[in-house]
Amino acid sequence: MDMVRYERFGAVGDGVTDDMEAIARAHEFANEHGLPVQADEGATYYIGGRNKTAVIRTDTDWGTARFIIDDTAVSNYRANIFVVRSSLKSFTPKGVSALKKNQSWIDVSLPGTCLISVTDSDVKRYIRYGLNRNKGSAQTDVFIADKDGRVDMRAPIIWNFDRCTFSRFDAHQGVANATIRHSTLGHAGINAIGFGTFTVEDSTVYGRSFINLRPDYGSTWHGDFIIRNCVFVPSCGRPASGCLFSGSHSGQHDFGYTCYMPERITIDTLRIDDTNHGRNYGGRPFFPISTRSSKTTLTKRNFRTSRPGRSS
Description:
The chain is mainly beta. The protein has three domains: 79 residues, no CATH class; 75 residues, no CATH class; 148 residues, no CATH class. The protein contains one helix and 20 strands. The strands form five sheets. Strands 10, 11, 12, 13, 14, 15, 16, 17, 18, 19 and 20 form an eleven-stranded parallel beta sheet that branches. A three-stranded parallel beta sheet has the order 1-3-6, with no helix packed on it. Strands 2-5 form a two-stranded parallel sheet. The chain is elongated.
């Protein structure tokens, strides 16, 4: 059997006999064996009010067949008649930081043509008015993109998503002129080394420090930091030691380059939410980056660090 037909499972298709049980069993068999489903040309399938759902996981062609859905005696009005589900596992595409209305391409490689769902819980749409008024639903878009990231414009992106939530931002081997906007960074926070201007705007950070200059690469930043209109929730709100900037440099390793301290740090409105810390809590240190070695005797340093510049 290379094709599953409803009639093989007892469907009549005369528009009178209830064929729902046969339709559901046909799809169950097709799903189990990975076979496509084909309706008979010109058939009329009657679906009554029983609580039954046909799950579709394989290619299904209804052709010229018709369906009569009789809801005069429905036993469960919340039940679906058909549910289309993929046999493939869902996944979260990486590298998409924002979406714009009618965007025709996303900068991501996919394993094949995918149905992508995007939600921004901070934005509410379709706020209903009248007798059944509600507070709206989270802004959601559903669109199709091929393996190269091209969006099927027959069902375009209809909203702007400026929404991103990450577990972390982590630049292992250097970044230049990085910008984070309108984002939420989880418990791992922001980790970076690099050059130029690093800007964080309108964002919330839940890490142990607001920005961690990675000690395993010399805690180096040759340039400026700008923090504007942000919220820092140290250690996800748990009582813990921490600081605004963190890092360390023992002086015992040659990283292959000169290590620098930031030249200028500009902070324009930063709220630190540390309300859950105990009575002995003394506040957050600003920049306690250490250049001390844990060894008693220091060897000659093979690097140069610039001293911190100005902060404002």
